[in-house]
């Protein structure tokens, strides 16, 4: 009778593939990653708007064409045409810089769930943003969501 009990106890004590999966462990890194990704795909996609700088300008600003004249004393001076050309060049340059620095709204997408590998603890951490809904967020709504600290829930996939 004691031998039968010892055999059953040793079966539960020794780590096996079945026993490891009972306690939330996966046999390999690949299996844990796959399980986390399957869990992640069960979430939903949302869209949000952000404000950012345009950062580039398609406007081409050509160099001004400068023509030199001479005054009555023979000194070299810039012609009236050149002064207008330089003034137009500076106006175009200001407009291009203003366009580049203009703030625009962009629409981005994200997922309610994500996976992150933590190598030190040999696990994938599944993060779920529980305060999100399946909708499009405006800039103000999106900024308010960052103020909430208790929005994230976690699930662990150990390998």
Structural account:
The protein is an alpha+beta fold and 159 residues long. It folds into 2 domains: 85 residues, no CATH class; 33 residues. It has a 3-stranded mixed beta sheet. About 3% of the residues have low confidence.
Topology summary:
Elements: H1 2-13, H2 17-22, H3 29-41, E1 45-53, E2 68-70, E3 76-78, H4 80-100, E4 103-111, E5 113-118, E6 123-129, E7 136-137, H5 139-147, E8 152-158
Coarse morphology: elongated
Compute the average pLDDT: 80
Total count of strands: 8
Strand order of the largest sheet: 4-1-7
Q: Secondary-structure element sequence?
A: HHHEEEHEEEEHE
Runs in which pLDDT lies below 50 for 5 or more consecutive residues are 16-20
Count of distinct structural domains = 2
Brief digest:
The protein has 159 residues and is an alpha+beta fold. It is built from 5 helices and 8 strands. It has a 3-stranded mixed β-sheet.
Write out key terms for the chains shown.
alpha+beta, 8 strands, single chain, 159 residues, three-stranded mixed beta sheet
